[in-house]
Amino acid sequence: MDSAKAMLNELLELRLKHPNLVVELARTRRKAVGWAHNRLVIIAIDHPARRELAAGGDEWAMANRMELLERISQVLKQPGVDGVLATPDIMEELMLLNHIGMERGEVDFLDGKVLVGSMNRAGLSGTEFELDDFVSAYTPRGVHEANLDAGKLLFRMHPDSRDSSKTLRYCVDALNELDEFELPCFLEPLVPNNELDPLVRLVGVATAMGNSSRNRWLKLPMVSPFERIAAATTCPIVLLGGKSAGSPEELRTKVQHSLAAGPNVRGLMIGRGVLYPRDHSNPAEVAKRLAAIVHEAN
Known about the structure:
It is a single chain. 41% of the residues lie in helices and 15% in strands. It has eleven helices and eight strands. An eight-stranded parallel beta barrel has the order 1-2-3-4-5-6-7-8, surrounded by six helices.
């Protein structure tokens, strides 16, 4: 039996026989301390819940769940990688796999990590209701009860779609509830084709949403010149890669330029460009080099 199949069998046994183990693992984990004061490198992997499986030029890259989990766990073991953004299924699978590994004497790859719960995934890719993106994964209470460090919301705005106004309402409600729990939120405002001027306008909207902007982080695409985007808010910013992150070298160049755009550009929240590099290089090495760039930035 190969190692992936053996690991799947162990994970399945825990799911069937100990369904509440993830609750205990979440409750007793060692959380990150003072993470909001530091630069951040967060691995983002909430794409499958939105019907998105393509990465690195492969339409079905993320369809093999055990391979995906292995890539994430290896990246999380790299120095300078501070945490992970995931939907409940992947977050719980990582906790179970980490538990299995620790039982074997392996490193605890979630120790002291920043765990961010992905919240609205209902805007399924390629559907007519894609912009009606209500909360379908973690709720604010779910983020709190899972002992996570923050929540993440996606707000895609299309001026010709009334569904965008619905998603605006969902996001405002969730932001207010996260604020009641005193939980930070990463809010990701996006516009069609990542056009610069509309994105600058939307950054102002995203900064103002909800009862308070405290504990508000913005997750933004690396649109050039990024200086205009960084100047549109005083909120801390993390950079996303998206579908077209490019080669690892191109990605590093984009990151370096964007980090220099303003003191509020604080790191990365990036997934496919690291986990499935377009040149098929080692995800762990890609993550390590990006983390070094972020944490060595002035």
